[in-house]
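Here is one chain, start to finish.
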Amino acid sequence: MSTQAPRPSAASDGGAARPEAHAPWTTLRLLTTTTQWLKERRVDAPRLAAERLLAHVLGCKRVDLYLDTERPLAESELAPYRELVRGHATGKPLQYLVGETEFMGLRFHTDARALIPRPETEILVDLLVKQWSASSRPLRVLELGTGSGAIAVSLAALLPHVEVWSTEVSPATAALAHANAQRNDVAERVHVLVMDRFVALSADLAGGFDAVVSNPPYVRTDELDGLPAGVRDHEPWVALHGGADGLEFHRTLCTQGAEFLASGGTLAVEIGSQQGAAVRTLFEEAGLHGVRVVQDYAGLDRVVLGQR
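Its structure:
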């Protein structure tokens, strides 16, 4: 991809080639050209991608790009933008490229140490927020596999009477979750514990939590290779692979995890869209009652809840 082409085009340089003197790369021209270039490479939402990457490089909001559409861009701005556009065209997620994303109205650092928080996971958080919003008593939550900390941090930020203990097998990922707790001013109420599942938790904690929550790995072994390239090639497999049937961690949650629930406490887990019936059965076999499966925005099974 040369940056010296006398007549740059979207097809040659991702909208970031060196322009001729009489045709400077203005904000609008760059966005238009990059959008077309990404579209030709079958990138999802190409205009949104072009805007988010340019706003990141310029250190502004997306809306600000349209307040001065004829602003000429310097090579010092084009060069990093070009690199980001190329990276996204090869499948690297936008959230990793810009280093952050939004979840439940909060900002989270994102990188390859953890899965990118998804809108579907907001359903789990929202269900618990609604359940507890009228309560003022202190509540204790235990989470398996916090990843970026999206669930734990959101619960603590939205419910000031909630304190969360989260387990995470990877020290590097745990550090990311802690950074997100600090970023959202809830580090005093979000405790990230480095361990595999619940193995290092004291037996004295049994029955001591108002909820056990998780967005566990739930992709079946035979599904891994068929995941979208951006997920398969860039997001951590350890946070995706749920064993042969995708339910390995759900079993842990329904046995070991449920033991930490207080009487009346809630077990709430995210699931794959085809796992509702199987996870409901696991909940019921674990002696949980009031079990229900909640659908996502597309009408697909996404969360299962039950009480001890």
